[in-house]
Amino acid sequence: MRITVINPNTSQHMTDLIGQSARGVALPGTVIDAVCPDMGPASIESHYDEALSVPGLLARIESAERAGAEGHVIACFGDPGLDAARELATGPVVGIAEAAMRVATSLGRSFSVVTTLRRTCGRAWDLAERYGVRGFCAGVHACEVPVLDVDGCPELITATCRSVLERDGSDVLVLGCAGMTSLCAKLSAELGVPVVDGVRSATLLVQSLVLMGLRTGKHGEFAAPPPKPYAGPLHGFGRG
Ligand code: 5HY
């Protein structure tokens, strides 16, 4: 099978880190295409960034489907454009926040999320609510390291995770940024609790959906977007 793992920001360095982790959990015969858009924000650290990352993300889904991709991962902890991507794609689409939070509920009574900037914590709480796991989430905390620097600050992030687990008394740690994927093994070894990386969780989940022959339901809310003309710079997104 062919799976696309899309980093919705335009950082090639982060895309490479994400691709490495995803390939680490590719099942035999699975080809992983790790890509990022050629337009949009260098990193996603606000609602504005998130909103403007979506057209580039959707363009990558569209080209991936044409190239035969059977499933897609949205590798950003805000799960940007997840619903729109599910409308557009025929194959299953999984967000890393969704996958990580769901996996975490299988590993303990409660989990804590460590994300980048404090201003993105609200989004993580909204997603925990949306995915029905709010009751398992003991806390969402920021290490106050910008997205593009997280893989370079292992000590600070380890210290933040350790104090968060102490404070929340939680059983499981969820990495709140795709850029932390390269720190997962180190954190697991040092913290002594399950550390859940959304990139690996989502890559395995989407492969299992494809293996079960399961796709997004197309009879209702996630049917293909109705064709209509689009004006201005987005005219190419019109499906008229
Ligand atoms: C991410 N931003 O995973 C999120 C992290 C965050 O560019 N990739 C990004 O702080 O929301």
Brief synopsis:
The protein has helices at 12-24, 47-66, 82-88, 96-104, 121-130, 154-168, 184-191, 198-211, and strands spanning 2-6, 31-35, 71-74, 93-95, 111-115, 137-142, 172-175, 195-196. It has 240 residues and is an alpha/beta fold.
What overall form do the CA principal axes indicate? Answer: globular
Helical/strand content category:
alpha/beta
How many DSSP helices?
8
Instruction: Report the bound ligands by name, code or SMILES.
Output: [(4R)-2,5-dioxoimidazolidin-4-yl]acetic acid
Mean pLDDT: 97
**Strand numbers in spatial order across the main sheet:** 2-1-3-4
Q: How far is it from the N-terminal to the C-terminal residue, by CA?
A: 30 Å
What proportion of the residues form beta strands (DSSP E)? 5-15%
**Number of strand segments:** 8
Helix-strand pattern: EHEHEHEHEHEHEHEH
**Largest sheet data:** 4 strands, parallel
Give the uncertain stretches in residue-range form. Answer: none
Amount of helix:
40-55%
Rg, Å, rounded: 17 Å
Secondary-structure blueprint of this entry?
Elements (H helix, E strand, L loop, with lengths): L1 E5 L5 H13 L6 E5 L11 H20 L4 E4 L7 H7 L4 E3 H9 L6 E5 L5 H10 L6 E6 L11 H15 L3 E4 L8 H8 L3 E2 L1 H14 L29
Parallel strand pairs: 1-2, 1-3, 3-4, 5-6, 5-7, 7-8
Helix pairs in contact: 1-8, 4-8, 6-7
Structure, explained:
It is a single chain. It contains eight helices and eight strands, in the order E-H-E-H-E-H-E-H-E-H-E-H-E-H-E-H. By secondary structure, the chain is of the alpha/beta class. The strands form two sheets. The chain has a four-stranded parallel sheet, sandwiched between helices. Strands 6-5-7-8 form a four-stranded parallel sheet, sandwiched between helices. Helix 1 crosses helix 8, helix 4 crosses helix 8 and helix 6 (154-168) packs across helix 7. [(4R)-2,5-dioxoimidazolidin-4-yl]acetic acid (5HY) binds next to loops. [(4R)-2,5-dioxoimidazolidin-4-yl]acetic acid is lined by residues 9, 43-45, 76-78, 115-117, 120, 147, 177-178.
